[in-house]
Amino acid sequence: xxxxxxxxxxxxxxxxxxxxxxxxxxxxxxxxxxxxxxxxxxxxxxxxxxxxxxxxxxxxxxxxxxxxxxxxxxxxxxxxxxxxxxxxxxxxxxxxxxxxxxxxxxxxxxxxxxxxxxxxxxxxxxxxxxxxxxxxxxxxxxxxxxxxxxxxxxxxxxxxxxxxxxxxxxxxxxxxxxxxxxxxxxxxxxxxxxxxxxxxxxxxxxxxxxxxxxxxxxxxxxxxxxxxxxxxxxxxxxxxxxxxxxxxxxxxxxxxxxxxxxxxxxxxxxxxxxxxxxxxxxxx
Length: 284
Known about the structure:
Structural class: alpha+beta
Order of helices and strands: EEEEEEEEEEHEHHHHHHHHH
Distance between the termini: 72 Å
Number of helices: 10
Largest sheet: 6 strands, mixed
Low-confidence stretches: 172-179
Mean pLDDT: 80
């Protein structure tokens, strides 16, 4: 069982290959002649698919269409299970089709044809759902190792169950997930004085709030509350240095609605009270 690489494209000799891997060296832009499903077992990593960046964390499945331009920046150390599937393994009629979403025309998957969002390429599994997905992956791994009578039939059906589960999670209400999350920190910083919330951002970027909160911390190293407070304090410092606004007006302009929180966050980040900061840094 092997993977070949020619002219920036990966090919597999078998109908499917499943590997446990550790992401370290990364991968330069390339395409595949197979569908790739990457399930993150530990850590997180970024996938760049057709020019969009997607952060995948533990419990996520990344769906990479064949012929999509795909790259992975080096170095996160994430552990993942890679499932590479030739389209004809699912149905011989798919041989030569342009992309993996041709699967949706098959009778077994036709009910998903109107609800699958092609841009929703990172699917999150949590709780019982995650347990079931990992159990399914373990069953495929067991059958590969044992290679008993009927193993291929079981593997084929497990892969069909896996794809069905993925398509269930790729429904249209999550359509804005295709927005590049690399813009998220800058977006929050630029809009920190408005009434942003993790719930509003989750809707904008197409995730549920709980998952999005975890994704945000993986991306920035801070919770949403910590990050937006730091952005607001930074803006408050600018106003204190460069304007004649009172401390109270600066607090409001910077997006703080609570005086106690403003003074606490400002002192924690700068080591000074707003008034002392203003006296020490006001323009002469």
